[in-house]
Amino acid sequence: SCAPPQNYPLYIRSVPTENELKFHYTVHTSLDVVDEKISAMGKAMVDQRDLYLGLLYPTEDYKVYGYVTNSKVKFVMVVDSSNTALRDNEIRSMFRKLHNSYTDIMCNPFYNPGDRIHSRAFDNMVTSMMMQVC
Known about the structure:
Blueprint: E1 2-3, H1 20-41, E2 50-58, E3 62-69, E4 74-80, H2 88-106, H3 120-133
Antiparallel strand pairs: 1-4, 2-3, 3-4
Keywords: Cytoplasm, Endoplasmic reticulum, ER-Golgi transport, Golgi apparatus, Transport
Family: Belongs to the TRAPP small subunits family. Sedlin subfamily.
Organism: Crypturellus undulatus
């Protein structure tokens, strides 16, 4: 999921889709945690190009990770807790891929910043990442 500084999701994707409402709730809760972490870091964050926030919080079923860009766009990734093969550096790498793909969308002259993301290339990139971790 990714969200601009105003905290409304521009893109949410979940697999399997039957838990989609639960994921929406988790993502909204996570955005508040991201804001708290950003506030706690204060000026230290300003000097960084992007910021991997790491594990935001674990639940019984999921691990929730966060990332924020220098323009305050937030990315949240929810991973099944049973997936122990996924390491921190792999999560960080996935966020970088998301950030790069998001940057490509922003460079599209037909994309209006703040609109929901409807991009086949972004969908394909997210799908390939999800297939790697499932």
